[in-house]
Design goal:
The complex is a heterodimer. By secondary structure, chain A is mainly alpha-helical. Chain A is 71% helix and 3% strand. Chain A has a two-stranded antiparallel ribbon with strand order 1-2. The longest helix of chain A has 32 residues. The two termini of chain A are 37 Å apart. By secondary structure, chain B is an all-alpha fold. Helices cover 72% and strands 0% of the residues of chain B. Chain B contains 25 helices and no strands. In chain B, helix 4 packs across helix 23, helix 6 packs antiparallel against helix 12 and helix 14 packs parallel to helix 20. Chain B is globular, with a radius of gyration of 22 Å. At the A-B interface, helix 5, helix 6 and helix 7 of A face helix 19, helix 20, helix 21 and helix 24 of B.
């Protein structure tokens, strides 16, 4: 069992090498699908053997030799938050690979190899227990994505790929510097030890804020937070469908995950004394304001988009704003909602990109003005489209609701943010409904309109059925199920986040002082707040 | 003979160089053709002697030459990388019109490789030089052959121009350096480095002593391609044939850094604790300006060799960051610099080697004109556009090299940067670190442009299909270059994933850096006396 995590990393890497070595594009794509499914299957024993009474503890720990004098260890381990994000990753990856079957014809071997390499790097980020190792994996996600966007993307792909790489890299070098600085001070790069050290009060407040700013630089670009989001719409729009799915579904979560792991304990709440310093509060408020700017700005810009994919891309900016806002709320509601948001956004936005990709495969356009009334021609597609739209808006009963509700509740109840922040964020929800429904209404309903030249002629590769084919339905059904299941019983999932978040908030308030040795005397507050959600049908 | 036992590798290389000069006069093509083979054997032999010979100086003190751990490290590095550079320089058939159709392939082979060996000999001597005269001679022995190598590397005006520029500016830098040496002698009255170290007024140097040190450092910056004498790099690197450019980016640079480290040991003691703050500040400023100048200018280039030239400047800047942190961080900073020298040599050889292997230029400057060797070398971004798709192996190799130069994890470049940033932060040089990471981000733009051009851009249409074909055959017929490229790409990845062994070597070398006889004891004596 203790070797499970390294095996999980190794399988996709071997798969990637296999894809390059074996002859034939067909072989490569089937192998890639197989490998991604095996990887997903390997996560099942993780889920079953995970000790759910000790969700905050690091489980399945694995540590290999020291990387000599560079001083970092290959140490892996997961708690419940990492586990669910890993589950999200391996859940989305086979779907993304399957979704590429029709659209990726050129240099397919390389494509699938990069997809699998990307999978390994993403899993590594969620598993790493060493801050430098975390950074290593964090950076390694760039290269596969750079090639995926740059080679198989849309007309602006070169620009988009370069911008994606440079933005993210420019941010993350500061993260590296901050990690090393903290590591030198602490004498270790183990994430828990780093956080403990930062909270021990051995470093000055201002010093810690600078470190936190450095850390935030990389994560903020990845999330992306408001002023540094400009790479995202471009990258999402130009990436091939699967690239967008993974980008929205998982890569953006690396940013929020990094904020959760590093910036929250170090920047927002750094000292072990009972008071947050004025520095922390200012820092936290700035982040919260930026995330609300992102929420509103993303929504407004999404509203005026003509390109469906770009619209969904801007909706990501808006949604991830909620996610960061929840983290900045610094209470159980906000943070649990935020973690749930990471998963939900991955599912619903990933699904939206898949559906849009399927439309694009048929009509070779994503222009709202050229598409209308598709429900008449593609009823099955319309069903999924509306389902995921509603999930994205946050309709009660679907997955988006609980997380959106909780993040805003968190902002309202937060002692540092309060109703003004919550109110503005709530405005974002309304705007979200406006732009998504606006798009859905025009594309799905209304008079039937498709582009003049329809796809399906001889010169356009494989002929696709009018409505979704079995493969495409097979891709969307698991997502639809997940959307509904999480929507109906979010409480179960939320409960598993409680302990790790209690630990993050640990020294803050007496109520959350979980005894780490005694299994699961679940702290009351969040459970009370969440149970009503369970009852929502 | 005993007195010369420490210099056997140098003697071997010099002797073989003399043989090669004679061989170059031969009127038989076959005789001239075996020159690279002889040079390769000589280098390999010298490397074997160096590795297995165990020279620790044996406690013998020699006036001019002294071994040390750091010297051994650089010597092994110089000889090993020398082998790789030699493979890159391997001449090919004159019919080949691609990148490595070098002028010396036919008529100047003997001379070229003789100069090659002499320059490496110079570098070896720099590592062990123990007095000012020897240091000066060794540095000149490193540089002077490179002036000629640049000029004879290809029969193009741009190479002649580069050679002349390199020579005159080099002469100017030597004048500055020599001026510094003269002050060093004038203020201390000593020639031997250890005696100078004793005679200097530690830790607060007098003005004249400071002036001497500063002039020496500025003189060295020419060899290192660092601010303020970095400006020649673009023209010279572009003008020289690609293998010579790769040579310039390693041998003189390493000699410059070695000389600078020696000087810093003399000034600061073997643990660098007595470095005057003026010198540290100077290094700080030089590091910041060198990195920034290199990277910003690198952004503006359209010729890949020029890009790599400015990147060479930038990497000197990164290493200067380590030197600027020497006083506070001591041996860990030195270890970082020593490791980075090796890292840069490996990843840079990979980049230049792949540039050589890429099929030649597809469009001629003037249609109908018979191209000279080297005219068709792939140099500009247009030349390499789309080549990563057609030659996947070369493309991936270039990607590895570029990502390593950027400092992406799992490459030697990342480990190198890590080993420079850590001591810099430990030395509390936070702003310098911030400048370094900003520069890493800037540099990512142009390295990424190389990768992006190779993979994401369509290839330029071929004007003459035959040219493209001969270029393609070229890749097949160049085993030595392919071997060198494969070695360096593998090294880039291998040391990036398991850097332990190389780090230990650098650590060992940095732990006892004093190449100066008696320096440790005497400097400690001086320190104790205070």
């Amino acid at each position: 069992m203790d070797k499970l995590l390294p095996i999980l990393l190794l399988v996709p890497v071997l798969g990637a090498i296999g894809c390059m070595m074996l002859p034939g594009a067909k072989v490569a794509r089937n192998l890639a699908l197989l490998v991604s499914i095996i990887t997903a299957a390997l996560v099942l024993p993780l889920l079953f053997n995970f000790d759910w009474h000790n969700t905050a503890g690091i489980q399945f720990g694995f540590a290999a030799g020291e990387f000599s004098t560079a001083g970092f260890r290959f140490s892996l381990g997961i708690d419940s938050i990492s586990l669910w994000l890993i589950a999200l990753t391996v859940f989305l990856q086979p779907l993304a690979i399957a979704a590429s079957f029709a659209s990726i014809q050129d240099r397919a071997k390389q494509y699938y190899a990069w997809m699998l390499a990307l999978l390994a790097a993403m899993l590594g980020v969620f598993m790493a227990r060493d801050a430098l190792l975390f950074y290593v994996f964090f950076e390694l996600t760039l290269i596969p994505m750079f090639f995926i966007i740059g080679i198989w993307g849309g007309p602006e792909r070169r620009y988009a790929a370069g911008k994606f790489f440079l933005f993210t890299f420019s941010g993350s070098v500061f993260t590296l510097a901050a990690v090393i600085y903290l590591g030198i001070k602490a004498g270790t790069f183990d994430i828990s030890a780093l956080v403990d050290f930062a909270r021990s009060g051995k470093m000055g407040h201002v010093e810690l804020i600078w470190v936190a700013l450095g850390l935030l630089a990389g994560f903020a670009v990845k999330v992306p937070l408001f002023p540094v989001h400009t790479w995202l719409p471009l990258a999402h729009t130009e990436a091939p469908t699967a690239g967008s799915v993974i980008l929205a579904g998982v890569l953006l979560k690396l940013g929020t995950y990094g904020i959760l792991r590093f910036v929250v304990p170090i920047g927002f709440y750094a000292t072990s004394t009972d008071q947050i310093t004025a520095w922390n509060i200012t820092f936290l408020k700035i982040v919260a304001v930026l995330s609300i700017c992102g929420v509103i700005y993303g929504a407004l810009v999404a509203w005026v988009q003509q390109d469906i994919k770009k619209l969904v891309a801007y909706s990501s900016v808006s949604h991830l704003g909620f996610c960061v806002l929840g983290l900045a709320a610094l209470n159980h509601e906000g943070m649990q909602g935020s973690v749930l948001y990471m998963i939900n956004h991955g599912l619903s936005t990933g699904a939206m990109f898949l559906v849009i990709g399927m439309i694009y495969d048929r009509y070779h356009t994503r222009d709202i003005n050229q598409l209308s009334g598709l429900a008449r021609k593609m009823p099955i597609m319309a069903f999924f489209f509306i389902l995921f739209t509603l999930s994205s808006i946050g309709l009660p009963g679907l997955n988006g609701f609980a997380s959106e509700f909780l993040t805003i509740l968190g902002a309202f109840k937060s002692e540092h943010l309060g109703p003004i922040y919550g109110g503005f964020a709530a405005l974002g929800i309304i705007l979200g409904a406006v732009y998504m429904l606006h798009m859905a209404a025009r594309v799905i309903w209304g008079p039937l309109k498709t582009p003049h030249i329809e796809h399906g002629e001889e010169d356009h590769g494989p002929v696709l059925s009018v409505d979704l084919n079995a493969r495409e339905i097979g891709i969307l059904v698991p997502l639809a199920l997940a959307v509904v299941v999480i929507g109906v019983i979010p409480g179960k999932l939320l409960n598993t986040f409680q302990d790790p978040i209690s630990r993050l908030l640990n020294d803050r308030s007496g109520m959350a002082k979980v005894d780490k040795t005694a299994p699961a005397a679940p702290p009351a507050i969040a459970a009370r707040d969440i149970h009503p959600l369970d009852r929502i049908p | 003979m005993n007195d010369f036992s420490a210099m056997i590798p140098e003697l071997v290389l010099t002797a073989v160089a003399c043989v090669l000069f004679l061989l170059g006069c031969s009127n038989k093509l076959a005789a001239r053709r075996i020159a690279p083979l002889i040079a390769l054997l000589a280098l390999a032999g010298a490397l074997a002697i160096e590795v297995f010979g165990h020279f620790d100086g044996g406690g013998r003190e020699m006036q001019a030459v002294q071994h040390s751990a750091i010297a051994s490290y650089i010597r092994v590095l110089a000889l090993a990388v020398g082998v790789m550079l030699l493979l890159l320089s391997w001449p090919t058939d004159a019919e080949a019109m691609g990148n490595s159709a070098l002028a010396y392939g036919m008529d100047a082979s003997g001379e070229y490789f003789a100069f090659f060996l002499l320059s490496i000999t110079g570098l070896l001597l720099v590592t062990t030089a123990n007095d000012l005269i020897m240091l000066f001679l060794a540095l000149e022995l490193t540089s002077i052959p490179t002036y000629i190598m640049v000029s004879i590397s290809r029969p193009r005006a741009v190479a002649q121009e580069a050679g002349v520029k390199y020579f005159f500016l080099g002469a100017m830098s030597v004048a500055i350096m020599l001026f510094g040496f003269s002050y060093l002698f004038g203020t201390t009255g000593q020639i031997q480095l250890s005696k100078i170290a004793e005679a200097l007024h530690h830790p607060a140097l007098t003005q004249w002593e400071l002036l001497a040190v500063v002039l020496c450092i500025i003189g060295f910056t020419y060899k290192m391609a660092a601010f303020p004498l970095h400006f020649y790099a673009g023209d010279v690197y572009e003008g020289a044939a690609t293998p010579v450019t790769a040579f310039l980016a390693f041998v003189p640079k390493t000699a410059g850094f070695m000389a600078l480290i020696k000087l810093l040991i003399v000034v600061g003691g073997s643990d660098f604790s007595q470095l005057p703050h003026q010198i540290t500040t100077l290094l700080w400023v030089m590091a910041a300006l060198t990195m920034t100048a290199g990277n910003v200018l690198g952004l503006l280039q359209s010729n890949v060799k020029r890009v790599l030239a400015y990147s060479s400047i930038a990497h000197s800047g990164y290493m200067l960051v380590g030197l600027a942190a020497l006083r506070e961080a001591g041996h860990s900073a030195l270890q970082g610099v020593l490791f980075y020298l090796a890292a840069y040599a490996i990843m840079n050889s990979a980049a230049f080697g792949i540039l050589m292997l890429l099929p030649g230029r597809r469009r001629l400057m003037e249609v109908g004109k018979e191209p000279l060797p080297g005219d068709l070398a792939a140099e500009t971004f247009d030349d390499i556009a789309g080549q990563g798709r057609e030659h996947l192996g070369l493309g991936l190799g270039m990607a590895v090299a570029c990502f390593s130069l950027i400092g992406i994890p799992l490459t030697i470049g990342f480990v190198g940067k890590l080993m420079l940033i850590r001591p810099a932060l430990a030395a509390n040089a936070i702003w310098l670190t911030v400048i370094l990471v900003i520069n890493a981000a800037i540099s990512a733009a142009y390295y990424l442009r190389i990768v992006g051009t190779m993979f994401l851009r369509p290839a330029m249409p071929a004007v003459e299909p035959e040219t493209a074909q001969s270029g393609h055959q070229l890749v097949k017929g160049q085993f030595p270059v392919v071997a060198a490229v494969a070695l360096s790409v593998l090294g880039t990845l291998l040391f990036g994933i398991v850097p332990g062994a190389a780090q230990k070597l650098a650590q060992h070398a940095a732990a006892r850096p004093s190449p100066v006889v008696g320096m440790t004891s005497s400097a400690q004596g001086v320190a104790a006396a205070r």
